[in-house]
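Student:
Attend to each token:
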Amino acid sequence: MQTQLPLFNTFDFKFKEELPVGPSYIFVSNHQSMFDIPPLIYHLRHYHAKFIAKKELAKGIPSISLNLRIGENCAIDRKDARQSIAALIKFAKNVYEKKRSVVIFAEGSRSRTGVPKPFKTKGLLTLFKYIPDAVVVPVTVNNSWKVDRYGKFPYGIGNKISVLVHEPIPIAGRDGEEVIAQAESVVHGAVTSTAIDS
């Protein structure tokens, strides 16, 4: 599905296969821009997807900040490891109890050049522990870094941004680190446009 954005930027959102509503999914994505978030909120709404984000995003960003504050999402303080883990455990237990899904930007912070970053494992392993019946779904975002590579002004013009939702990866009975490595390989393997080759 293609969506028109301001300044002739477009979003193309595709699922490689249909995901039935019902299971808890952990959507594991790379992160290139704040423009990654709205299409994920919209297109994953049927799965009751909740976001894990740094606490700074819970204020000052129209729509996104409000959603983070009131939508049972998880705001973490990246400078306080104890708070982060406690908040993540509480969040994961709620997701498990209510059969929600999760969106996590596993690289930890956005890439301003599109170049993929290694996945951070601690948060994902915590989710696996407390949502043991979840299914991991890798997600690859391409080209959104080009929209705000210079900050809020000037925004990039005429970029074709894509979001690709890959085939699911069950985690039950598997080693968590192995699942993360597989998801990272899938996500990064589909990144097609970076500052290096553009």
About this structure: Residues 81-98 form the longest helix (18 residues).
